[in-house]
Design brief:
The chain is an all-alpha fold. Helix content is about 65%, strand content about 5%. It has a single domain (about 1-245), classed as Four Helix Bundle (Hemerythrin (Met), subunit A) (Up-down Bundle), CATH 1.20.120.
Length: about 260
């Protein structure tokens, strides 16, 4: 019964996550949904800045703190391992929902592009960014990233193998394609308002801090294997000549110095 309950819990949270992900696309892109980043009436500037900054900070704090190994070890005393990732996804999704609901727009224009071709290209980058985010999650096991693989393994009485270091497809050219996709999506706006700029700047800062924390954890997990990968492959911008060597080569021990 515990395994069935875990699968039902994991499935429900995944549906919530995926709905939140789709809504995030519409929210940032000002697509026709009830609330968008530039939707609604403006209110006083100072309270708006405080509220929006707190909402962004809440998501960043939840997303970063709960992802750290030390927190996971503490968290594991209260939450079964099979649903730990699912619970993390649930709280992250709820933090995003809170941001969507309570976000206040600041409509002062920062830039506005009107040329049809330029607008088309910017919109193409926006969709490319979201597509890169989704593709990258599947490259590193989408269903494990969002907790489904763990609850399915519990139902079947199986134990998941330990994490393996891999560099599939775009990961051979850039170490963090998911973050790159988010940056493209957040900044590609034909019309950039002050509120959207606040969102883009805050999330960019969070992404850079998140990368620093994540890479520290990856070095602890994979050691020299990840250090060599970091030396070979760019963090966010694919550069000519920088590419991961074949995985078999990455696993060779570093020669003695």
């Amino acid at each position: 019964m515990g395994g069935i309950a875990s699968v039902l819990y994991g499935g429900a949270v995944y549906l919530l996550f995926f709905g939140t992900f789709l809504y995030a696309i519409a929210f940032v892109g000002n697509l026709p949904v009830p609330k968008t980043i530039d939707g609604g009436a403006e209110s006083a500037l100072v309270p708006t800045l405080v509220i929006d900054t707190l909402l962004l900070g809440l998501f960043a704090l939840q997303h970063s703190v709960m992802a750290r190994p030390a927190f996971k070890r503490w968290w594991a005393r209260f939450v079964p391992a099979a649903v730990e990732r699912t619970t993390y996804v649930l709280l992250a999704s709820l933090a995003l929902v809170a941001l969507f609901v309570h976000w206040r727009p600041i409509l002062m224009p920062v830039w506005s592009v009107t040329d049809p071709l330029a607008v088309f290209l910017i919109d193409a980058v926006f969709w490319l960014g979201w597509g890169l985010v989704l593709l990258s999650t599947f490259l590193i096991n989408h269903f494990e990233l969002f907790g489904l693989r763990q609850v399915w393994a519990r139902l079947r009485g199986r134990t998941l193998p330990p994490p393996a270091f891999r560099t599939p497809f775009v990961y051979k050219r850039v170490r963090h394609p998911i973050y790159l996709g988010f940056l493209l999506a957040f900044w590609a706006a034909p019309t950039m308002t002050a509120g959207h700029l606040l969102f883009a700047l805050a999330t960019t800062g969070y992404i850079l801090i998140g990368i620093w924390l994540e890479e520290r954890d990856l070095v602890d997990l994979f050691g020299d294997q990840y250090r060599r990968y970091r030396e070979q492959v760019s963090m966010l911008i694919p550069l000519p000549g920088r590419k991961a060597r074949p995985e078999a080569e990455l696993k060779r021990p570093r020669p003695a110095e």
